[in-house]
Amino acid sequence: MPSGSQGRVEVSVRVQHGAVDIRVADRGDELPPEKAKLAFLPFKLDVNAGAKPQQGIGLGLTVASRFAKLHGGNMLLEPRLGGGTDAYLTFPAYSRTITNAATESSAPEKALL
C-alpha cells in the first residue's frame, strides 16, 4: 500500500447496470502479480519481503474481500505499471423505500441481515 511521498489514495464510486462499483487506487509500492494471488489470504501478503519493515498484519484485503462476498459482491486487484495497485469492489445495487412505517427493499432476504 502507499508509502512515503507516494502515499496518495484515490477512491471513486459509480452505480451502473444494477451494481455499485468502487475503485480504490494507491500510488505506493507495486504489487507483483505473483503476490496478488496471495493478497486475499490472511497473513500471507508481504509486498516488500525484507526491503523495509512491513506495515499492518496482512488482514485488510482478506476482510475487504470477504465483506464484498458476504454482500453478494466481489473484489479484485490490478497492479499498476510503475507502482501502486487498483482494488475494485463490486456490489449489487439495492433500493429501499420506507412508506407508512413499512420498509420495502429490492435486496434478497439474506442481504438485509
Question: Could you explain how this protein is built, in words?
Answer:
This protein has 113 residues and is mainly beta. 13% of the residues lie in helices and 34% in strands. A four-stranded antiparallel beta sheet has the order 1-2-4-3, covered by helices on one side. Strands 5-6 form a two-stranded antiparallel sheet. Strand 3 and strand 4 form a beta hairpin. The radius of gyration is 17 Å and the shape is elongated. It starts with 8 loop residues before the first strand and ends in an 8-residue tail after the last strand.
What is the name of the CATH architecture? 2-Layer Sandwich
Q: Approximately how much beta-strand content do the residues carry?
A: 25-35%
CATH topology term: Heat Shock Protein 90
Superfamily at the CATH H level?
A: Histidine kinase-like ATPase, C-terminal domain
Strand order of the largest sheet: 1-2-4-3
Largest sheet: 4 strands, antiparallel
Provide the number of structural domains: 1
Q: Give helix % range.
A: 10-25%
Derived structural class: mainly beta
Topology order in helix (H) and strand (E) letters: EEHHEEEE
Number of helices: 2
* Average of the residue pLDDT scores: 76
Oligomer: single chain
Determine Rg (CA atoms, Å): 17 Å
How many beta-strand runs? 6
**CATH class type:** Alpha Beta
Uncertain spans: 1-5
Q: First CA to last CA: what distance?
A: 31 Å
Inertia-based shape = elongated
